[in-house]
Structures are given as structure tokens and as C-alpha cells.
Amino acid sequence: MIKESFTGLKTYKLKKIKSFLLLLVVLASSTSCVAVKEYNKVFLNDADMALKAPFSERFETTFHIYREAAAGANGGKTGGGCGCN
Amino acid sequence: MVVKQAVVVDVIKKILCVIFLSLGFVTYAQQDSTQVYKKKVLETVEIDVLLGYYEQEGIHAAVTGGIGNEDLQNIAPSVVVRIPLNEDDVLTADVGISAYTSASSSNGNPFNTAASSGYDDDDDDERSGNGNGNGGGNSPTGTPWVASSGASRKDVLTSINFSYVHATDDRNRYWSSNIGASFEYDYQSFGFGGGYTQLWNEKNTEFSLKAQVYLDQWKPIIPTEIHEFDLFGVNFLTDNQSYFSGVSVIDKDGNSVASYLPSNYSPIDDVNRNSYSVSLGFSQILSKRAQFSVFLDLVKQQGWLANPLQRVYFADQANFYIGNRSSIANYEDPSNTDLFHLADDIERLPRNRFKYPFGMRLNYYVNEYLVVRSYVRRYADDWGVNSNTFQLELPIKFNLNWKLTPSYRYYDQTAADYFAPYDQHLSTQAFYTSDYDLSAFSSHQIGGALVYTDVLSKYSLWKLSLKNISLRFQNYQRSDGLSAFSIATGFSFVLD
Questions:
Q1: Do the domain assignments include residue A70?
Q2: Residue A85 belongs to a domain
Q3: Confidence at residue A21, expressed as pLDDT on a 0 to 100 scale
Q4: Smallest Cβ distance to A59: which of B361, B476, B488?
Q5: How far is B102 from B457, CA to CA, in rounded Å?
Q6: Residues A42 and A29 in one domain
Q7: Strand partners of residue B452
């Protein structure tokens, strides 16, 4: 029984490591794509293409931090600065 | 005397030397700036004003142990000013207040008579408790289902933050630092941090690293019955100075008793709550129309991580009430307007918490009318909370001025190991909470944003030209019954 649990845990960890390695490979390979030149970035420079939450969203990010246990990885606070979770 | 004079002259010489050297650097920098054209990181002063309103309804108030009215209204204005100090440096000041009224918080003292121990919550409730408890007409009553008018029903959070960003000449490296503080009636926070961003591959690839520290402190407010026990010890039901002097406490059968004792309670020995976080970010342009980023935060929190105002009730201990004995049977129903269950203890949580949120954004420019913005997040912590977040926004441009952005957000989480509903914890447990923000639930949020962009700067206020106006509205539904609505309006200006 203990051996089975240990094997299960090992398989789970291996799966996690594999996923992380896959992500690293994707990230590394994406950097080797042909770079988009500055003069070709007109679409990418559109305000809605910004890789962050718009300023007007920060009010609701604050109430998410209060009403949900998860926080962070979105540019908002990750904990601290308020008496919330 | 001569020696002193020599020392003073030496110091003056050194100061002059430093001043001349500094002037030399300034002169060099000025000469250099005339030789090499650099586009400013920020062209002019920008001002963003945001006014938000939020309200919620629910039946799982944490202050009354997981049941009760959790109506809340919040108004939060904030102003952000970004000032270019020179071509390379930007200073940002961010000031805001957040004022709320909360039914849950109001029931820190739910009773409808003034205290006698000096712990007067100014609780002159206007509801009509009929005082049918054993204490007669003057006996206090309370209920978790009606907001109390005590001082803890409202609070104002004031925050101020400054950040400074420096860019290198080639705009491939950015250094940043920030410092800030916030104040609430029962909580204060001081925070600081720094960050570094590196771009390469013709600015197609970006890596950022940020560290942040919050040094927070509780000024604990605890529920009235626990406060009196803390103040008068085991005699808190009989001491003449106690809030409960002469007040009848009844058991589950409605009998007047003197055996109520929140013996699990021990005073808060450490009011500090410190948070340390490291954030890693990586972004990559995939094509002329697509780019993505990934974020990983590593967060450690230390100190008093529970909320001292939140009650907990134990299933293995007798229940004691103040108020109308005939309401015992329907205590958990909103029809109870005159009976209050006395707490067994306050919320207790471990002194440490590790959080590991991992997020990803992918944006795609479909055409001049439509952009697809997506965000996913996976979160885990060592309290047993695992969560998933998914958000989709579709900014649709009608013309150069008007844009509508419908959005949808899904969120779910598992319960923290220390969560149990009202009256289901055991007194033998080390940690316990009945705060439904730490329970298992899912939520759906649907809303949108309407944005007007003043492309030609037709409108101005004093020397400020309007950039855009936005109106954002969201409806939030949680599977435990909590529902919320928020609306925020923002104004962006640039200085002429």
C-alpha cells in the first residue's frame, strides 16, 4: 500500500517535472523565432495588446484579493498591505 | 584650536571637491544629451483618476462565525500621477482611499445596548429587539442577520505609494523601486520593493524580476464577548465593570446559566504580519499579431495571518446565547432578529503561509476592430488552497473614439485545510476558520468596459488634456451565494 502511494507520488512528480520542462522548451524555442522588427510592431503596440491588466481593472483586482484565497501573478498584490487573505 | 581649524578647512575642501565633481558630471551629461537624441520614456505628466463602487450580499459573514449578513458597500477613489523627471526616469505617485460599510464587521459588537466596561462600540442599534431574554426588557439582544451600528461597521483605508523607474539609454534595461504605506483603523502596512527588467532580441523578449516586502501590523479588535473575557477573566459575567454585568446568558434550552467560558481563547501575542514576495516575468512576441507572458510569484507570509474580529464556534462545546430564547430554533435563519450566539474563540491560522501563483497572458490582434485578451492562472499554497482562474476580454473598437470590451472571468478554489462551516470545528483543533473566503467555491464574473478615447484632445481641464474616459461594470456570482456588483469610472489626462 505504502509502496503504491510512493509510486503514485513519484509518477505525479515526474508528470509535473515533464510539464515544466515542456514549458521551458516552448519558451526557449519561442525566443529563437524570427524577431519582429520595430517598424512591424504597429499591431503589437495597440493599447489593448499590453500584457498587463488595464488600469481600470485594478479596483476589481482589489476585491478579488479580498473575496478569494488566491492572489498574485496578475500584477496585483500577492499578500500584505491589507487585512485580507 | 589650530587642529580644529585644519579639520574644518579639510572638510570644506572635500565638500567643494564633491560639488565641482558633481557639476562636472551634470555638465557632461548635458553635453551628452545634446549629442545623442533619446526618446523620453514618458513624454509628459500623466494623471489617472479612478473612482470605484462595490457592493456585495451574502449569508456567510465571517465575523459571526460563517453565518449572517455580509452586506458590504465600498467606495474607492484613487489618483495616479506619472512624472517624467528627465529622458530616462519616471516618478509615480499613487494615492487612494477606500471607504466601506460592512454588516459583518459591524457585528464585532452585535448587541443593542451600550457597554459598561469602556468597550463601547457606540452600538445604539435601531432595530427592535424585544428583549424577551431572561434579563428582562433591558437585556441586550443581537443577531448575525442584521447590521449593527457600532463603530466597526465602517472603516477607511488610506494608501500612498511612490515608485521610481530608470531606463538605460538603449531602453533595454529598466530599474525600479517603490515605497508605500497604508492605514486602516485596525491595520497598518509599510511596503517597499525593487525590480529589474531586461529586454533583448530586438525587444521581442523580456524578462523581469521583482521583489516586494510588506511589514504590516494589526491593531486587533476582537469580538465583544471575547474582549470582556480577555479583560475580566473568568469573572467577566459577574464583574460590575463588565459589559455582561447583569446580562442573562442562556443555554441551548433557554435556561439562564453562568457557565459560558471561551476557554480556548488566548491573547494575540504577535500583531505583526510580514509578506515577502519574488515575482518572475517572461514575455515574448510570437508574431506581428500575437504575444504572451508568463508570471510566477513566490510569496511567504509570516505572523498573525488570522483576522482577530472573526468568531469561531465549536461543535463539541455547549452553545450559549444572549437574547430571545424563542429564537434558538431558528438561529441560523435570517428570521432570527434578536438572538446572538456567543463565540467560543477567534479565528486561528498558522503563522506561516507559502503561496505559488503562476499566470499566463496571451493577446492576439485579430484586426483593427478586435483584440482577444486571455489570462489563466494556477494557484497553490501550503494551506491546501488550489485554484484556477480564467479570464477572456474582447476589446471591440467601433471607431477611433469608442470601444466596448465585454469580459468573462471564471474562478474556482478548494477549501483551506483549516476551514469548516458554522459550529462544525472541534475545540481540539490547533487552527480553525469559518471564513467562506477560504472555503471551496467557484465564481463567475461577467461584465464589460466602455471606453471613449479623445484622439484629438478636444476636451481639456485647466492644463490637462483628456486622453480617455472609461466605465467598467462587473457582476460577480459565487457558488456559496455571495453576489457582488462593481462599477468603476476612470479618467486619464496628460499635461499640455
A1: yes
A2: no
A3: 54
A4: B488
A5: 41
A6: no
A7: B402, B469
Name the one residue in this structure whose C-alpha cell is 508605500: B180
- Interface A:B, Cβ pairs < 8 A: 200
With CA atoms as reference, report the closest residue to B470 among B488, B483, B456.
Answer: B488
Q: Are B303 and B330 in contact (CB under 8 A)?
A: no
Tens-digit pLDDT profile for residues B42-71: 999 999 999 999 999 999 999 999 999 999
In this predicted structure, what is the pLDDT of residue B21? 40
Q: Which helix (H) or strand (E) holds B221?
A: none
Taking alpha carbons only, the member of B233, B250, B251, B249 closest to residue B241 is: B233
E-state strands within B114-239? 154-167, 173-183, 187-200, 205-218
pTM for the model stands at 0.84
C-alpha–C-alpha distance, residues B193 and B214, integer Å: 9
ipTM score of the complex?
0.83
Residues A17 and A1 in one domain: yes
Contact criterion met (CB < 8 Å) for A80 and B449: no
Whether A37 and chain B come into contact, CB under 8 Å, resolves to yes
User: Which residue from A minimizes the CA distance to B371?
Assistant: A48
Identify the closest residue of chain A to B161 by CA–CA distance.
Answer: A81
* Cβ–Cβ contact A76 with B under 8 A: no
> Tens-digit pLDDT profile for chain A (85 aa)?
445 544 554 555 556 555 655 665 565 555 555 699 999 999 999 999 999 998 889 899 999 999 999 998 876 666 666 766 5
Domain carrying residue A4: 1-33
Q: Give the whole-angstrom CA distance, residue B473 versus residue B479.
A: 20
My answer on whether A44 and A29 are in the same domain is no
